[in-house]
## 1
Amino acid sequence: MSDKRIFDRALVERVVSELNITDLSKATIGQVVLVAQRLEALTGVPFIRMDQGVPGLDPCQTGIEAEKEALDRGVAAIYPAAEGIPELKQAASDFIRAFINVGVSPEGCIPVCGSVAGSFASFILCSQLEQGKDTILFIDPGFPIQKSQLSIIGARYEQFDVFAYRGGALEEKLESHMSSGRIAAIIYSNPNNPAWICLEEGELEIIGRAATRHGAIVLEDLAYFGMDFRKQLGKPGQPPYQASVAHYTDNYILMLSGSKIFSYAGQRVGVTAVSDALFHRRYPALAARYGGAGVLGQTFVGAILYMITSGVAHSVQYGLAAMMRASVEGRLDFVALTAEYARRTARMKELFHANGFHIVYGRDVEQDISDGFFFTVGYRDMPGAELMRELIHYGISSITLSTTGSEQEGVRACCSRIGSEEIFTLLSERLGAFDRDHR
């Protein structure tokens, strides 16, 4: 090892110890963020931040203006209804119809404090629907926080890395898990966090069939809605549409987040859309636990979501409604705006390739993955945990794929904070130094 490292080993180890991180290789996203921030504060040397998936674009002005108008009308003095304001429920229903080509009634479009709250409430719901169905199946890699949510509620989970089970191979793998009868729900993100793979129509049909056959619910995380930039998505009412399992089963809950679609992360708002058939379905177990008729949708809103957040901030709902409505009416091209992420990632990949790195999850079934918000990189045969630790010494922060349920060796990279020419130049220099030291 040469002396090209920006942060020496002793300093990094001291910071890790001060932050009470027992194993840096297994550090959470939040812990990696703290390490990078602390090293920056101690040395004044900026990090290249590839760790946390925060938006790197300006927030949508349409939402901001709508929030201001709502606040001026005095909504801050009024508790929002837990089921959401009518304007947002209708706008979300129209948005789903326009961009997924699926009908979800306004009744089933429920505002949540981001997809994190949506998944948490959905896990509680799904794990309580039927006696003996207490396990959530993760099609990994995925968002680590969701497994942490299951730890809080004490629910079981199973997982598998989809890397080797694309296309038709997915069906047999799914069946091997679901044949036990214990799977209450299946969860995945599409496009995928962290790998940016996109499940294709045939794979979504396989998932939908399995969910219907085994009575499981699909939790489809669409946080990166419309960001398969290989397709001309984002034209309201026109194909191609956002791929979704909703075309292949009635057993679905869709999670849409304002954070990335509209760069509105600071307002913590999204929509959980429950299919019409599922929303009105009755479950005796829900009636026994919560009272009432055991209707899924009513229980989800009144007995679970309300107990978590008591509703979503009033003005924010008006903001999201305005952005969704503008998108449906063709006044806001959110896909054109987020396409900036694809341009950044394409440049980043070029720099990584030039310095001995490779893309870990590089293919969908029949084509290369899209450039987008996230991507995954490995370096030669270096284990992912070692790669993450070594990159920190060169002022580059990331997270290991092992923390996402992946069985592949590498790290997740996010492009959102890599926007200026200065940062691209710095990234090129640091990757070059890393490569020279590790050849």
Note: Residues 198 and 300 are 29 Å apart (CA to CA).
## 2
Amino acid sequence: MVAIEFSSVGSDSGMKELKLTGKKTHSTDDQMRGLSAVLVDGTDVFVDNGAIHAKSRLEKGIKFVKEKAELKNPREIWVFWLTIGRVEGSEKGYKAVQGYPMYIDEEASLGYKSMADSVNSMDRVVRGSVDVSNVPREILARLKNFLKSRETLWEHAKTELQEVLDA
């Protein structure tokens, strides 16, 4: 994976705008280099690449259970896998996106997420898939606003991704 540099936004088009540039810390498939995680927690939308290894700030200290029914007071959080790279020879832009819900019961320090959904959507994203058909419209609107705020990345995004989020 990639070590993430959380310094201020730089001028390098693309990756620095989402604070995704970094040093390669161990061997990885080139497709994984542009992978990132964007979380939508209520009205808060943020990048947390710890999610790639199930160690986002929201997952720390949480024991994940096998059934969502085990949670008494869960909060729904949407995790989006997102890839950034060169799209059709242009500058770096958003290439692929997929999302899935995760549920956290902070009071009980418990959580639930479908590992199959997480792993399968990550795999599809690194292969270039754009699919957010399972995501509620209000969540998509928050994601879109967040992604559009990184204008250079949005301008050079894959057309299909822009169209899906603009719908």
Note: The longest strand covers residues 92-105.
